[in-house]
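A note from the maintainers: we've had questions about how concatenated examples are separated. There is no special marker in the raw files; a new sequence line simply starts the next protein. For clarity in this README we add a label.
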Amino acid sequence: MNWSIVQLIFKRELCDQMRDRRTLFTVAIMPLLLYPLLGMALLQVAQFMREHPTDIWIVGAENLSVEPAFIIDGKIDTAWLDKGKEDLQTLHMSPEGDQYFFDLVQQFKGPEEQGEDQDAGELVDELIQREMRKRNIDLAVIIPAPPQDDELESGTGLSAESPAIYMFVNSASDKSNIAADRFNASLVRWQNALIAGDIEQAKAEVVAVAEPFQIKRADVADSGDKKAATWSKILPFIIMIWCLTGAFYPAVDLCAGEKERGTFETLLSSPAHRSDIAIGKLLTVMTFSVMTAVLNLVSMGFTGLFVFSRMGSLGMGPGMATAFGPPPLAAIGWLLLALIPISALFSAMALAAAAFARSSKEGQYYLIPLLMICMPLMMLPMLPAARLDIGSSLIPVTGLMLMLRGLIEGQYAEVLQFAGPVCVVTIVCCWLSIRWVVTQFNSETVLFRASERFGIGAWFRHVMRERGALPSLGAAVMCAMLILVLKFFIGFALTAPDSWAMFSKQTVIALVATVAMPAILMALVLTRKPRHALKIHRCSIPVACAAVLTAVLLHPFVMWIMALVMYVYPPAGDLVMMQQAVGMILGDAPNIWAILFVFALAPAVLEEVAYRGFILSGGEAMKNKWSAVIFASVMFGLAHGVFQQSIITFFVGIVLGWIAIRTGSILPCILYHGTHNGLTVMLSYITPATLAQSKWLSWIFEESGTAGMYQYSILPGILMTLAGFALLAWIVRTGGPDSIRRREESRKRGGGLDIGSFVDNLLSGKKKQATSEG
């Protein structure tokens, strides 16, 4: 890489962007105007956020003739209101209305007294609802008269059966809900006063029973800690959003914009290498990303200094000025330090997406997918339960935001424990993103894609006319997305199984309908040779046996990865309950073979047809074997739903994908997959009696920390893992292009497992031809 050329390209692109008025407005002008305008609007809105009067219609108020009084002179006593005299206008009584309606509601009985007379109750409800709308009433309160034969207890004014109070609320109206909450709070204060007066007048020493202890809460946080806690949740999110936004529009103009202006070809024809051009443009996008974030940060700081400090005097709460205010200086420093990796990551992602766009209009559409990918990672640290640990530190963007949150709050000891994983993950993500940009710039097919109009009919004719032996990358992505969508909706449609028969049918049918059938149908429609698209080819007997043995030898390594994942990301309570429910269902299985069919054989065949068959074949269009394997493995992991299981299946998918790439067949993958799942099932059936019968098993397995569970011993597990990787290397070497001649000779000698021809004829609708050719 020639840094002088990179510097020259950087200066050229920077000067070009500085002359663009749209870019300058997005980066410089809008941040300086946005937050002051938002602050002014917030101050104006705050004036209308004060409490407004709510109309409450009380019928039967004379039935509350007890002391202390709840209503005095047609108004609720200020002693029971939330803010005393200041809240007097927010809760007042409306006129009672016409005499007919008043007489009707005086005879009202509560729902528990209506019995079978439901029609009368519904009639009263309709009348009350109609009168509330007619008189614009927010809340109607009915206090029926108590029974006439009740005797009042001496001195208290309370009847033996306390009068019921019914509130009619319009839950579709916010004002009605607020009125109900305010009135209910006043009733609670009045009721507590009645109880206290009754106890005092009866001279019963039961205060300790009614209130056995008092709870007194004290806040030991100072104003600086409160401000840091508030801004630690807001500032990292704002910085992330503006880094992405500030990087995207310059990236679109530097790539798609130059394609439209016709200057992109001139730049690429210069003596500079494609990598130098990509890095120069990346530095330009990073500069604008940092400038956007810094200007937004400065503007937000001044807004917090001059606006939020005044909100406490505008009826927004006494703690508003304490909670907000100018951000701490330490927060500004940590955010500025984190801007470099954040801007590098988002700039590389935006530049790669912009390089793929045909025009500026198309490039702007890619902002939404980028936001959809990044937004969940940004929102997760804002949850109250989110904290920085070993699991969250390994999540891109999320770990960095949690680390910034801890640094702003001054939790340096906790952050220091996980700073290493966060920095490593962030640097790796930045490096991968930059490599993606360089790869995009080195690909002519990506940079110079011709613009085309889309039509359903023309697109379908094009697909049918241009379909080849293998599916395209778009077809593979469509198949993977279709599988995810089908699994999501069918998973919700299925009812919880209560027996083994129901569980086994649901599992197998779901695998056939959501995994295998989409891949098979798309192979029949979108490819000319379905057998090649699904990688249904013959496999030599030694390779097939080696795949089974490799699955056995690598099983300890996978189990250790599973234990590590469960340690880093402990399963939640609902996942544990689901595992227990599945365990209870497995106890009703007729035999072990039924369990192996559902958990080992069916997933091995049906999932491999889709993921190592159609999806991996489509991924090979990327012209990079590792990219195809990783793509298929990621989709394979996402399809399992549970986060912990997705990580494990991703690593297993790497091994399966590499075997499929090198052998060109899914048969060894099916054997490996079925053997691996079968061993996982059998591992749960190991008992002390089983180990006592075999000296080898007692040497390989040992008791784990969980009662009744066993795991692989360290020394045998390491030896098995080394032998498994050695055998895997042999499979890769044997299944490569150099072994085609040996496989042909093996087929002629009859020593191969040739199921490909049969499946090909079956999918093509032809009868199997005689094998006596030649």
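[label: protein 2]
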Amino acid sequence: MVKSYLKFAYRSLTRNKTYAIINVMGLVIGISFSCMLYIYVNHELSYDTFHKKSDRIFRAIVTDKRAPDNPRSYGVTVPALGKELVDNFPEVEEMVRLHRFTGQVVFELNGQNFQERNWYTADPNFFSIFDIEFVGGDEATALKEPNSLVLTQSMAVKFFGNQDPIGQMIDKCSFGAVKVTGVIKDHPNNSHLQFDMLFSSVRSDDAWMTYLNSWDDFGAYTYIVLKDKNSIDGLKAKMPDLQKKNLPKYGDALAFDFQHIEDIYLGSEAIEEGTESAHGERTYIYIFSTMGIFLLMIACINYINLATSRALARSREVGVRKVVGAFKSQLIVQFLSESFTITLISMVLSIGVMDMVFPYFNQITGKNFDINFQSLWMYLPPLFIIALLVGFISGIYPAIYLAKLKPVSSLKGGEFNERGAMSFRKALVVFQFALTIVMLVSTIVIGRQLNFIQNTDIGFDKNQLVVVDINSGNVRQQFQSMKNEYANIPGVSHVAVSSRVPGEWKNIQERYIWGSGTPDGISDSVKVYYMGFDEDMAETYQLKIADGRYFSAITDSTSVLLNESAVIALGLSNPLGSLIRFNTDKGEFRATVIGVLEDFNFQSLHQKIAPIVIGTWNNPLQYIDYFTLKISGDTEKIIAGITEVHEKFDERTPIEYHFLDQQLASFYVAEKRVGMIFRMGGALSIFVACLGLFGLATYNIERRTKELGIRKVLGASELNLFILLSSTFTRQVGIAYLIAAPAAYFIMNKWLDIFEYKISLHAGIFLVSGAIALFIALATVSYRTLKAAFASPIHSLRQE
């Protein structure tokens, strides 16, 4: 029986090659792209699930509510918290702390200098909590002794080549001599913790021991393992009492909380200073899932429309089968078998398409998906499930529709009532193009927003700026001599030094300040960002002075500038000459406001411009950390000159530099990826929809061949016939537009909310999208329509 069904399905498809090709092409595109999106979404949702204790691992976070209208959460806590939880809270089984208390580790090995930033120190029990595979050394003892070092495989090869690194000593290291005690596999992509080097404790002095028991310093990344995963709510309920006991000076302004490890990657967009190397977006999970479903639905609609439009051609077949004794259920199974045959063929072809497309998809998503013998078995279940669902959804309505045809009317020539089927097909075409228009609008909006980001005025000149890191105390002491030599490099027009730069990728220092109009009056504290600039920064970055003046020389060491947002936050009506006070470890630091800078975007456009205070490079709050060089000309020669000067003053650490505009662009990598995926999905959606529209137009014209011949004999022009045949599709696209426009507006308005600075959703975007959809629809059906309009009526009337 099954064999006969498959044989009938094969014969039906080979007799109707155009129908089969259109359906297979649409389904291959729909299945392959939706499966790739499924793999991407599944990967995003799988972060940190591979740890055996993942259901019981939580990260401690702290929320600062001192600014009630802007509470801020941090992934870094006090170092004493973990031990307190293990010792006094029965819910907690164990804890581990990570630290990274300097920006880089510098060491010398075999006469070569290395400088690494992706590292942590950890408590000895780190590997009992996190499941990381060892390829060398013993995970139970790797971090037991002080000054031990565990490397990833890639770093072990980088440092030691083909030598066995276990037991090797690195004598000239920032922390003193360290010993390699373990080598681990490189981290999987779906781990929020990504590090190249993991040290055991590198300090054992009294100051370090005091720090580890401190409730005043915030510098530890603390993870806990619960005895029972369901006890987390009870533990959270005890945190206010713990905070009041150990941090009474904050009152209710500070709160401890816990974040499940599996929520870190997708749920930390509002958590600052965490351990995660990258954040995911739940919004994009929903968007990509919806996009994959949309594309599958469009492909299914193609099948349904084409299958029901061919009902007239297959009505006699149905009549004959019923006359010879076929039951309705048997006919349904037969037609479903055709649907499943098409989808299974499409599934097999989709594997080949995915294999070809994955390299480009990886470039867009930043992942590393591929198809090999091992991964194929992982991809087959979702592929097979998608194929079965698509086959059933696509085939069930046409199967029931064809199976219920009356044998008498079918054998008489198929003169049955098709009005209901036609209405259903029209509704499906409307729905199909509504989905396509939503994708089209979204693609245009995302493209315009990304273009806006790249071209909007951010308040300073970001072009041709090279930022060079200062990683040596020797450089800081001789920075003026180094600055002069940088200025003498041909092609360098300006050189400046600063503690941080606009567009900073590291944490920008924040301070609570008090502003006053007179030396005796102190207003409420305001939390502001702080950077230290030298006298050349304003000209190098083309910062604009709104009032007062910029720094003139070292004599301005107790002077500061405010941006316009800081003036508003401090409530200063006449800021020039106002006194600003900072609390520091060495007491109060007072500075006088000498100027006001126009607001500039020193962070990404996701964030509103915040208050910032600019001090001088020689202030007591923060030391200098960067040179910025304005360049023009031969970039390669200029970089060579910059490197030569760096090596002259800093023989130990390799040069670190980047172009500021490229760094700013990295803030929007996620949006660029979404934009590219949307463009791909939008183009594929339009193509699949057009495939179906072409097939539908073909069958509609074949059905009306005699009618067109009669109309032409009675005097209808080619233009009249073209308008007659295309008007149906035009109306359907128009109705689809009316449905899609509000939906697209709602979706894109939500997406734009992640940006503080964004484009407006004006009517032009939607009109252009509708016009494009209409043009594509007309272009798709025009070939068949024009061919029918110009056909000889004699041939049309002779057709059986």
